[in-house]
Amino acid sequence: MAKKTIDQVDVAGKTVLMRVDFNVPLDDNQTITDDRRIRMALPSIKSVIDRGGKLILMSHLGRPKGEPSDVEKFSLAPVAKRLGELLDKTVAFSSDTVGADAEAKAAALSDGDVLVLENLRFNDGEKKGDAEFAGKLAALADAYCNDAFGTCHRKDASMVAVPEAMAGKPRVVGHLVAKEIQYLSDAIANPERPFVAILGGAKVSDKINVINNLLGICDAVLIGGAMAYTFSLAKGESVGNSLVEKDKVDLAKELIAKGGDKLVLPVDTHCGDDFGDPAGCNKEVVPAGEIKDGFEGMDIGPATSAKYSEILASAKTIVWNGPMGVFEKPPFDAGTKAVAQAVADSDSISIIGGGDSAAAVDQLGFADQVSHVSTGGGASLAMLEGQSFAAVDLLDEA
């Protein structure tokens, strides 16, 4: 699955159209509250401008509904300003994505210049994968670069129709996407063993295909988070007021039967009787499947943490997607913390799926002790399901 990277393209004097993920959080004053996604794109951006290329950046931001107020609320103008500060140079911004302003500003670029286009999702053609919209974007540049892993599983115009319209021109991956492909696809195709997956989060339904796929290739799949209670219900156990998906019980039974010893479920549960007041509520640790009425499971218990830590200690490849409990609310962060510590301490290639698991690892201070933290929650899940990505498949082979 290795793809040509932006470093392998001669960009001097040429224009590169790069799809980035600048979907950053903004407060009510349009101030960026976390610029990590912009900073993570800098290596690919600098690869182009430091070698004398002209760079046009395109991204989505949020989910605009097409209302007039969206133009300010979801504009990429603050992103262009922040990028200019990080690069210590002027970054141009066009008030449209395709149209007179974008064309004029693209044509005015000199070698080493950067232009940020307005939010792709202001155009209906982006989500529809529209070929005409894609053709206008494609006409702006001599080469295409995909550095937006978070949207690689989507069929949006900027991800698929644009590179299709640029057939015959260089179509490559940026540093971020290259790294994601290397870690995630290699882990699944050629894992060093034992290969252990940790899956948490609220819903079995979100992870059915992942569990199914990983049971076929992992040596152990450790289950945590609220989805564990649906498995508990499938075994006829007591789950109290815990969050469960009753319509997924039959499916959970099938996964238990298929998984056998590979599917490892919690042996105890840390419960509370008031989700809204985790610190002050009544708390107790009970054996798995013995949650009383009025209580709900909020975290794996200490015996489960110890069991999972022991399994992880001997692992050579670890993939983790989803927290073990309500990690944002102490003391129900203990299970996630214990698993994060075990992953950090292990002598393994450790890959953290995006979303909540990435946030947890970051919040708990373990981000620099794991091999790779994915930049895309949905995309990393799709890859763990074994899906192929049209947005990546059609790019140039290395």
Automatic annotation (TrEMBL):
This enzyme's EC code(s): 2.7.2.3
Top enzyme category: transferase
Single GO MF descriptor: phosphoglycerate kinase activity
Positions annotated to bind ATP: 207, 297, 328, 354-357
Domain of life: Bacteria
UniProt binding sites for substrate: 21-23, 37, 60-63, 121, 154
Coiled-coil stretches noted in the UniProt entry, renumbered to this chain: none
PANTHER family (alphabetical): PHOSPHOGLYCERATE KINASE (PTHR11406), PHOSPHOGLYCERATE KINASE 1, CHLOROPLASTIC-RELATED (PTHR11406:SF23)
Record protein name field: Phosphoglycerate kinase
Organism of origin: Stieleria magnilauensis
Lineage of producing organism: Bacteria, Pseudomonadati, Planctomycetota, Planctomycetia, Pirellulales
